[in-house]
Design brief:
7 strands
């Protein structure tokens, strides 16, 4: 029987071999620290992929902790479920299959933390629902906001990346001006914003 560390390593290796983007090691450590330090017990993740970050975050939760995660790709959902069950977390993680734009408005209640790691071009679209769904003093973390350095750079952006870069720049501007949030951008790996709802 493999232990959880071995399972996590195997999932990460599968991601590397199959070119599935998953969170970087320092980002994973940052999330685990935030979860433990803030006493987070409920998390909403937008963008499951193969379940790697859901498993990382869930292992930092207290015994009664729960994580909901949204994924639109049915193949990813199948792989994520396999990985989550293998990690022994099937009773703590719930996958909500479908488009986050449809699912988010239907959710009720509030989460201690929200992790945004879906299509980069849609972060700004999802933000109002994230603010609605996170509790007061709760956290919203968004990954890959530097987008290979292109978000902050002035160099020409290739056509296929232009929409994501333009929308991420808009997302960062909106975050900075949002009166309900206090935000910091942490320039580790591909960039992470951490916001607290005031």
């Amino acid at each position: 029987m493999m232990n959880l560390d071995d399972i996590v390593r195997n999932i990460k290796e599968f991601a590397r071999q199959n070119k599935v983007p998953v969170i970087h090691d320092n980002t994973a450590s940052l999330l685990e620290i935030l979860i433990k330090a803030s006493g987070t017990a409920t998390i909403l993740e937008i963008g499951t992929a193969i379940g790697y970050s859901a498993i990382i975050m869930t292992r930092a939760l207290p015994e009664e902790g729960r994580l909901d995660t949204i994924e639109v790709n049915p193949d990813m959902v199948d792989t994520a479920w396999k990985n989550i069950r293998e990690a022994g977390m099937g009773n703590k993680i719930r996958i909500l299959e479908g488009d986050a734009g449809d699912i988010l408005p239907s959710l009720t209640g509030q989460y201690d933390m929200i992790f945004l790691d879906a299509a980069k071009s849609r972060y700004v679209e999802f933000l109002p629902q994230c603010i609605r769904l996170v509790r007061k003093n709760g956290l919203i973390a968004a990954d890959n906001v530097l987008y290979k350095g292109l978000t902050m750079g002035s160099e020409h952006v290739r056509h296929k990346q232009r929409t994501a870069v333009t929308r991420l720049r808009e997302f960062l501007r909106v975050l900075e001006k949002e009166p309900q949030l206090k935000t910091v951008l942490i320039p580790i790996e591909d960039g992470v914003t951490i916001s607290v709802k005031e």
